[in-house]
Specification:
Four copies of one chain form a homotetramer. With 245 residues, chain A is of the alpha/beta class. Chain A has a domain of 153 residues: 3-Layer(aba) Sandwich (Rossmann fold). Helices cover 24% and strands 31% of the residues of chain A. Chain A contains seven helices and ten strands. A nine-stranded mixed sheet of chain A has the order 2-1-3-4-9-8-7-5-6. In chain A, helix 5 packs across helix 6. The longest helix of chain A is centred in the last third of the chain and has 14 residues. Chains A and D meet through strand 5 of A and strand 5 of D. Strand 5 of chain A pairs parallel with strand 10 of chain B, so a sheet runs across the interface.
């Protein structure tokens, strides 16, 4: 359990190339910052990255079939993700692939399809302080984390966050400007598991912060598939008389 | 609260016209059996029906805007429900409209879109016995119901039912042939509430059974909208300094 | 449904008599402020108050049997509530009585027994600002409330709040000093329903604030019992052969 | 994660000694059957057993402090478990110890205290057939298990099972005599995790059935503590002005 996980770190990878400020913070892209942390962690045996502008957005059938957990960061180009890739990612989650959705990925097409709701929220770009409080202290995603994580400067995301109530709520954010947000949210869907984790704006060096990276790693472990057959569905005739004993 | 509810009972209304056996059980359609029970119940002030073959499937903008709770039965013609109506029903649920999905409606397009999962299940048409056990005895949807409801002859639906875990699980079915099923499932989505209720095959007189109708009525009351504004979303700049006191 | 509710408003009623500042804010006790609002609201047909220093703490068998929803405020004298009353309140919740637990009632003996956990939290008395954000906008307890309720000066309660994850989470608080708190929490227990609602310190006039009182009223309605028999338990022999059909 | 788990298998161990039929099925006690399976499984580094008639029921402070996950089977002598041990087990769960409660342990004193409800159910001893269906196919407790587990002859437990709704529902049982039951239930409480698993009557050889033992092992892994400090609670004055940025 929690072993031999193959991870693909997906990134839109546009801001870093088009905006000089972002490029300075993440010269090789946010995916590299995340991948560099995850690579070689216990239980992770393969680490790939994939980005929007690669063929098939880097998510070919081969790559998806060989991915246990996919992490997703997107923002300005959600609409450029093809129908085909959205359907394939969704299908893989139904089969058991884990999905860790980061920050502005809340409006990514695979996440919105999986949630079934609007996924909107309040936001404000004012470099304010955030604290992510642990509300489920025995949850594996909180492993290695103190009572809260403090991020000195970040974009604000505030409630109401238009998602289904998470199956497990692990982290709730406080923002200096007066808002709260459900920031660490676990969902079981089909055979798959989805972890939404809020931190990670492109203009702040948040993906270099140890505690943030640790939660992503914990989320990858939590979302890893379990080894079992997919449930049978469809017609199960004929009726068998099982008797009372 | 729970007052002045306007209900629209939607039915595909094809089996009743194309299959003589079904037509004998429900000569005026399943929607009429349901509507006849709901009409005039306390709290329900308006009762409409709507069917697939009406223009806009009977769900014009005027009808949807004037509907607090929509009940949905469909089966053989899910794919004939137009994209436009699917989107409009979804949007109305996000705004607060209640949705009560019946039996084979588990594969209806609005329900599948709201769930975000495959919504598949096991099934068997063998006229076997079903018992729906109450697992949440203080839930308003169980009002007026005993420890279980027994349906003498029905189609079987069995787990795994590929839905998100319900926010509130009220009823679990037992089937003579060896299966169980989460049969009464509550979901909060956007401002809306969705109640999935399993009973109701077209060839059995299930929509004449008092306890089944009572649960539908309870579900309509539970799913009724609450009076409050829709949450604000989007940009909430500028940052205000709220101070420590 | 939601009709003919008999409410008993329970208050420890000590601070108001022993502390002059509190006595000025609530000269007739906090219970009177709450009762004055609830009395005569739609659906409420009987309104009593009861306090710690009355015989049986005002909660005789007759009173409890005639109470559909009990609200509870206690703080400095939790330990003076008798074992007998704790057991009787617990038993009535199991039978279906609603319980609305306010503010420092989080450490009251009936609540701790019902939760099964420690029920501790962080706190700070610094008259800071609080905002209670609605995270479940379609929930009946949020009826009539905007995106958030602002309380200008209050005691802080912060996470981790050591309760089971609520069955429905309706409100999350933000505090000026940097904390968050699950402030509106619904629990189903036995046949009963429990609503924990955070606001209400003794030295602030919070129980005169319209939105706070409205949430208490909504909570009373939500927690009202449903009309149905209590589930049968125990030996259900002999085994009957139900057959396959 | 999920490594170096120290397990203590607790058993009342009375039926085996007082009832010849039970003694024949479990000559060394049910705890030995369970312990023999768990001992040496991946991730389990220490395996103890403890029984009611040992001093301190075998659960001294040293043993409890050195236990990551405790499994519990009791039935006829629940009331003989001392107040002190009940309190200590409860306190250890609050600190993070996992608890796997088996079969008739649903009425054990530690479990009832943790649940806060009556924990009653229907039952029938008629050696009937049971099927435990997986309703959460991506859950780690379902690893290695097919669509259902079939137990040929067992005691029946039926709904309503008077527990809080589980935080995660993994298994639902079907019984030949017409009942259903929530048989695999996960609860987060304090820093600890509790898994209730229904199978295991004393007169049937259920603790030799591979799939049943596998679920117990999965439950032990799921319930293992996470490495993190216990949340701070209590007074957190003074108020600090965090500013808006």
């Amino acid at each position: 359990m929690c072993e031999n996980i193959k991870v693909t770190v997906w990134n839109e990878y546009r801001h870093e190339k088009s905006d000089e400020r972002v490029g300075k913070v993440y010269p090789k892209g946010m995916h590299r910052a995340i991948a560099d942390y995850l690579d070689g962690q216990p239980g992770i045996v393969k680490l790939r990255t994939a980005t929007l502008d690669e063929p098939a957005h880097g998510l070919t059938d081969e790559v998806l079939a060989d991915t246990d957990v996919l992490t997703w960061w997107g923002h300005m180009a959600h609409h450029e993700v093809s129908d085909q890739v959205v359907e394939k990612v969704h299908a893989r989650v139904m089969e058991g692939m884990g999905l860790v959705v980061l920050h502005s990925g809340h409006m990514s097409r695979p996440f919105v399809k999986l949630m079934g709701t609007g996924c909107g929220l309040r936001w404000r770009e004012a470099a304010e302080k955030e604290r992510l409080w642990v509300v489920s202290p025995g949850h594996p995603i909180a492993e290695g984390i103190g009572d809260y994580i403090e991020i000195p400067h970040t974009e604000m995301y505030g409630e109401h966050f238009d998602i289904p109530a998470p199956d497990e709520l692990v982290l709730v954010s406080w923002f200096a400007g007066g808002e709260v947000f459900r920031s660490g949210c676990c969902f079981y869907r089909g055979m798959g598991k989805i972890f939404y984790f809020r931190p990670g704006h492109e203009t702040f060096p948040i993906y270099y912060q140890e505690e943030v990276l640790r939660v992503i790693y914990n989320g990858v472990q939590w979302a890893a598939p379990v080894a079992r057959p997919r449930p049978v569905s469809g017609n199960t005739e004929p009726l068998e008389d099982l008797g009372a004993k």
